[in-house]
Design goal:
By secondary structure, the protein is mostly helical. Helices cover 66% and strands 0% of the residues. 14% of the residues are buried.
Length: 79
């Protein structure tokens, strides 16, 4: 797996973990961000080929989870 793919996989995994820790369903977060629930699902399972299509969505998610995209990518890395 190349470096970009590892970053995407880590982001997706951590994104899901943070959402669950905030006790938000995919539906609730999608509503807050003004996006479709399928998009939340996709972000939690995305691969490296599509990340650039979701920058604006990621920024809305960043705002609604209260963490930066960098923090999502590196979440719990110190543990």
């Amino acid at each position: 797996m190349n470096k970009k793919a590892k970053i995407i996989c880590r982001f997706s995994k951590n994104f899901r973990k943070i959402r669950k820790e905030r006790k938000l369903t995919q539906e609730e977060l999608a509503f807050r961000c003004g996006i479709n629930t399928k998009t939340i699902y996709y972000l939690e399972h995305m691969d490296e080929s599509d990340i650039h299509h979701y920058i604006e969505i990621c920024l809305a998610i960043e705002k609604n989870l209260g963490v930066s995209l960098f923090e999502i990518e590196n979440y719990n890395e110190a543990e």
